[in-house]
Amino acid sequence: MTAGVSCGYGRSGATGLDVREARRARGTQVTQRVLIAADKFKGSLTAVQVAERVMAGLRQVVPDVEVEALPVADGGDGTVAAAVAAGFERREVRVAGPLGDEVTAAFALRGDTAVVEMAEASGLQRLPAGVFAPLTASTYGSGELLRAALDAGARTIVFGVGGSATTDGGAGMLSALGARFLDADGEPVAPGGGGLAALDSADLSGLDARLDAVELVLASDVDNPLTGPTGAPAVYGPQKGASPDDVATLDAALAHFAKVLEKSVGSQAAEHAASPGAGAAGGIGYGALLIGARFRPGIEVMLDVLGFAPALERADLVITGEGSLDEQTLHGKAPAGVAAAARAADKEVVAVCGRLALPPEALGRAGIRRVYPLTEIEPDVAKCIADAGPLLERSAARIAADFLR
């Protein structure tokens, strides 16, 4: 029995084994050039480690296979690491973490293009284990990261947002860039989304002038507005420890934030609040839109930045994946973006994952021919997470046996 879950798309709906036999019958060369373009297996392996394990598994079966690794990300945590793996220089800087304590965060730079990942400064991973701060966590450090990219000479900044510990509408980030948010006594409001309830006035006149000369791209895999039933607090607040009461408080505070901003920046404050991406990463997308960012799906931006198109042209088979292939995958996650680009180029795509929660027909429509979930080898999810590396090598060996020999 052939390994993996066959998704049956394309003209023939053939499996990898069928495709290989058909090529042999025609006397054509069997696929030997592979592009690994997978995201991280969250909680188990980074995208770089995924690529390393897949490469090792392929070469166990086909030692001379040509493999190109291009770890990918969709704008969330792991975005800087993917850029560094693609040849960007890693730059480190000390910034404020979500609770105000100083942390070492990184951005990536190549020429005058910078990749800044808000999770590096303001992500959940920056909180102590088991600690959440839904009302008080701030994005101030993310603004400091953007400022560091400007200091480094960046003229284009890809601002990847996701995995945040914050729901402050980007107020902290804007403060770090020169904005002032004051209460009725003329004092700065408290950090975090909760503090915005006391906001009386907003002054953006002191924003860093260099922002006017920079192309700022908001890279995100979500298109939520700032507030409301599909806004940042309602949809993502619970992931950051927000109780139902906290969600209501944050939603009202962010709506008030946007209302106060109308006095200083005009009707565009309300327009941006309703725009796709405004609710990304606790509303930092809103703050980015206010300073002129252009919203684009994160995986599309990152594929451009990482040089995916020329790598794809060199490949015959593309291997993508992430920890869980589920309904969210189909809505802007890295594997869906990779598969869409590969399918448009008439390249065959297979995927690896920890767990699979999508039916074959959905994967087939997405352009993924076959999936190799780790749970197919080891049904115990806890063991899959603990032993993801060796299991992934075994899955990759199965891919090699199916598609490369």
UniProtKB/TrEMBL annotation:
InterPro entries: Glyc_kinase_flavodox-like_fold, Glycerate_kinase, Glycerate_kinase_RE-like, Glycerate_kinase_sf
Keywords: Kinase, Transferase
A molecular function (GO) term: glycerate kinase activity
Gene3D superfamilies: Glycerate kinase, domain 1 (3.40.50.10350), Glycerate kinase, domain 2 (3.90.1510.10)
UniProt record, GO biological process: organic acid phosphorylation
UniProt KW Heme keyword: no
Pfam hit, one: Gly_kinase
Family: Belongs to the glycerate kinase type-1 family.
Protein's recorded name: Glycerate kinase
Lineage of producing organism: Bacteria, Bacillati, Actinomycetota, Actinomycetes, Kitasatosporales
